Amino acid sequence: MSGITRRMALRAGAASILVPLAAPGQVERANAQSRFDWRRFRGERIEVTVQLSPRGQFLQRNNQEFEDLTGIKVGLEVVPEQQHRQKIIVEYASGRPSFDVTEVSLHVNKRQVGKAKWNTDIRPLIADASLTAPDFEFGDYGQGMVQYATQADGRLDSCPAGADYFILYYNKELLAARNVAVPTTWDEMFEAAKRLADPSKQIHGHIGRGLKNANVVLWSSYLLGTAQRDMIDANRQLITDTPDAVWAGETYKKFLRDVSPPGSIGFNWNECQTTFMQGRAAMWVDGIGFAAPLEDKARSRIAGKVGYAVVPRGPGPNHHCALFGAGYGIPEASRKKGPAWFYIQWALGKSNQLKWLTSGAGVPARSSPFRNEEAIAQSHFPRDFFQTLEASARIARAGLPEIVPVTQFRDVIGTALTNSISGADVATELRRATAEFRPILEQSERES
Amino acid sequence: MPRDAAILAGPAEAAAPRRRPNYARRYAWFVVPAAVVVVAVILFPWLFTLYVSAHDWHLGGARRWVGLENYQKLFSDARFGWAVARTLLYTALAVVLPMLLGLAAALCFHRRFPLRGLARTVFILPMMATPVAVALVWTMMFHPQLGVLNWLLSQVGLPPSLWVYSADTVIPTLVLVEVWHWTPLVMLLILGGLASLPTDPYEAARIDGATAWQAFRHITLPLLLPFIVVALIIRTIDALKAFDTIYVITQGGPGQASETINIFLYLQAFAFYNVGYASAVVVVFFAIIMLLAALLLWTRQRVKVT
Question: Which of A39, A238, A323, A446 is geometrically suited to a Cys-Cys bond with A396, CB 3.0 to 4.6 A?
Answer without folding.
Answer: A323
